[in-house]
């Protein structure tokens, strides 16, 4: 079902679609799933790989946004908390409860955050992940063993969600296909088709692997390309004004010893007025994020030295175990597709994170803004808008209760294969059939060769970057090790895909270049 040749053949058999979605990040995949589950003939095209951009570079949180609550954006927080609850129900193998502790160094902080988080609890309603509570200095010290104790008054515990972003994206792509959509990565839209009246009626696209070109007709074309939104808008109208201003968020990944317990830390006020999180993730610690307005966008954004220094400096202000650049296992940068500021006085942290749906004169529909937590609601609103415009017949949204591929009971992190959910048994079966696939990719890693084979055969991985960045998350967890194992993984890829030695070498060279952005 997830075989690329089979999916490409569907393009040859079908040139007419109800909905074509451009972009395979959280937003595009959500839109495609909403569309196909309503019964519409749906095609999604992604220029590189699912979640290649922003959607694999998040803080790994499914959250309402405590910061937005402090800004008084109650509606956004309430909507996100509701969607957080649905994500837990629909993808329980990837989304789980994470306890956060806000350390308090003044009695006022203790009072302020206790009250504020009670409001957060209240807004969660029936979909609460757990009640917040004030804890003593002793309990805070016991639970956060590496936290600085000087002047510590206590802490406030609250609950939010945590997940694996690109794993969820892959599962969303699989769910789309299971419901009848055609979903393709490494397939670039090169042009928008228009009829005699100047209305959008389809796209031209090129298969990046074969260089074959396709002309595809559609009743609705949806631009869900995140920071590349303006590129598609200019494809429609060369004079279109920029709608997006990318804001860069950087994270560093540290060894688990920096946060040995199960709790995350939320630092509510940094010197730039943002919040900083230290979150346990895949037996490491993700620390971030920053907010830097950028002039341009890229598929591989690079962390600025001042962003890295800011994160390390802020972490060191709270941790007893010193963090140095040499301790960083990986560093990743993502670009948020923020609405372009009206003027220079508008700070990125104050720009609304609400999503926006734009209808161009040509009929092109663009969905921008939002965040991972609200991807489902963004998709629902987008397809509702397309229906309202008369491009599609009325059909009810069913994604509130639609289980995502892999959904299988509650999250159990006792061993690392948990992210595969109901697919876990097939990976174990692969190892039983071929015991050599049970070998670890590296002595410092928990991942096995079987996971690489599974990613290629069943998760549409086509390149070394697809495997090591977004299927088996090594690049995000230990970038130097990812470079070390690249030849082994490239060899498995070449065997599975029937590629030659020259292709293998090209893959290693290309991946090594990408990985250089993740190494300090």
Topology overview:
Elements: H1 4-13, E1 16-22, H2 26-37, E2 42-45, E3 61-62, H3 66-70, H4 74-90, E4 96-104, H5 107-124, E5 133-135, H6 137-143, E6 154-162, H7 165-178, E7 182-184, E8 187-194, E9 200-207, E10 213-223, H8 229-236, E11 244-255, E12 264-267, E13 276-281, E14 284-288, E15 292-293, H9 305-318, E16 330-339, E17 356-359, E18 365-368, H10 375-388, H11 424-433, H12 449-458, H13 464-471, H14 474-477, H15 479-497, H16 501-515
Parallel strand pairs: 1-2, 1-10, 2-7, 4-12, 10-18
Antiparallel strand pairs: 3-6, 4-6, 5-6, 8-9, 9-10, 11-14, 11-15, 11-16, 12-13, 13-14, 17-18
Helix pairs in contact: 2-7, 2-10, 12-15, 15-16
Task: Using brief descriptors, characterize the structure shown.
18 strands; FAD/NAD(P)-binding domain; eight-stranded mixed sheet; Helicase, Ruva Protein, domain 3; alpha+beta; ten-stranded mixed sheet
What does this structure look like?
It is globular and about 70 Å long. Strands 3, 4, 5, 6, 11, 12, 13, 14, 15 and 16 form a ten-stranded mixed beta sheet that branches. Strands 1, 2, 7, 8, 9, 10, 17 and 18 form an eight-stranded mixed beta sheet that branches. α2 crosses α10, α12 packs across α15 and α15 runs antiparallel to α16. β9 and β10 form a beta hairpin. 36% of the residues lie in helices and 21% in strands. By secondary structure, it is an alpha+beta fold. The protein folds into three domains: 168 residues, FAD/NAD(P)-binding domain (3-Layer(bba) Sandwich), CATH 3.50.50; 166 residues, D-Amino Acid Oxidase, subunit A, domain 2 (D-Amino Acid Oxidase, Chain A, domain 2, 2-Layer Sandwich); 99 residues, Helicase, Ruva Protein, domain 3. This is Glycerol-3-phosphate dehydrogenase/oxidase. One of its GO terms (molecular function) is glycerol-3-phosphate dehydrogenase (quinone) activity. It comes from Algibacter amylolyticus.
């Amino acid at each position: 079902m997830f075989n690329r040749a089979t999916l490409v053949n569907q393009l040859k058999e079908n040139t007419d679609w109800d909905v074509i979605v451009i972009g395979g990040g959280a937003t595009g995949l959500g839109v495609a799933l909403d569309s196909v589950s309503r019964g519409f003939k749906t095609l999604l095209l992604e220029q590189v790989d699912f979640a290649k951009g922003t959607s694999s570079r998040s803080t790994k949180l499914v959250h309402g946004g405590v910061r937005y609550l402090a800004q008084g954006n109650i509606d956004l927080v309430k909507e996100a908390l509701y969607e957080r609850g649905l994500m837990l129900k629909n993808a329980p193998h990837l989304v789980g409860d994470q306890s956060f502790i806000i350390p308090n160094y003044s009695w006022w902080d203790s009072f302020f955050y206790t009250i504020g988080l009670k409001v957060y609890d209240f807004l969660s309603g029936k979909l609460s992940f757990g009640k917040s509570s004030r804890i003593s200095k002793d309990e805070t010290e016991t639970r956060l063993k590496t936290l600085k104790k000087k002047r510590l008054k206590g802490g406030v515990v609250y609950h939010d969600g945590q997940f694996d972003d690109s794993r969820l994206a892959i599962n969303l792509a699989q769910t789309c296909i299971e419901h009848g959509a055609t979903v393709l990565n490494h397939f670039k839209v090169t042009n928008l088709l228009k009829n005699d009246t100047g209305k959008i009626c389809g796209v031209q696209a090129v298969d990046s692997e074969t260089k074959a070109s396709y002309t595809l007709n559609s009743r609705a074309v949806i631009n869900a390309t995140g920071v590349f939104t303006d590129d598609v808008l200019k494809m429609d109208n060369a004079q279109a004004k920029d709608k997006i201003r990318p804001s860069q968020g950087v994270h560093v990944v540290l060894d688990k010893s920096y946060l040995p317990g199960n709790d995350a830390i939320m630092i509510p006020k940094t010197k730039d007025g943002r919040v900083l999180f230290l979150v346990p993730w895949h037996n490491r610690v993700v620390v971030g994020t920053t907010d830097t307005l950028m002039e341009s966008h890229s598929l591989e954004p690079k962390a600025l030295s001042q962003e890295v220094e800011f994160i390390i400096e802020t972490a060191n202000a709270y941790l007893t175990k010193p963090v140095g650049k040499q301790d960083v296992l990986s560093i990743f940068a993502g670009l948020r597709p923020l609405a372009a500021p009206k003027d220079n006085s508008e700070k990125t942290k104050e720009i609304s994170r609400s999503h926006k749906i734009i209808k161009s004169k040509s009929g092109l529909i663009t969905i921008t803004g939002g965040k991972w937590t609200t991807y489902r609601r963004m998709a629902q609103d987008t397809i509702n808008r397309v229906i309202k415009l008369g491009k599609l017949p009325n059909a009810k949204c069913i994604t509130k209760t639609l289980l995502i591929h892999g959904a299988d009971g509650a999250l159990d992190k006792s061993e690392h294969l948990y992210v595969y959910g109901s697919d876990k048994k097939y990976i174990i079966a692969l190892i039983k059939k071929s015991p050599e696939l049970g070998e670890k990719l590296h002595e410092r890693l928990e991942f096995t060769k079987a996971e690489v084979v599974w990613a290629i055969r069943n998760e549409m991985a086509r390149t070394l970057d697809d495997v090591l960045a977004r299927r088996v998350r090594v690049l995000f967890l230990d970038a130097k090790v990812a470079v070390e194992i690249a030849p082994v993984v490239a060899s498995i890829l070449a065997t599975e895909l029937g590629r030659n030695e020259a292709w293998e070498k090209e893959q290693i060279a290309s991946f090594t270049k990408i990985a250089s952005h993740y190494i300090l």
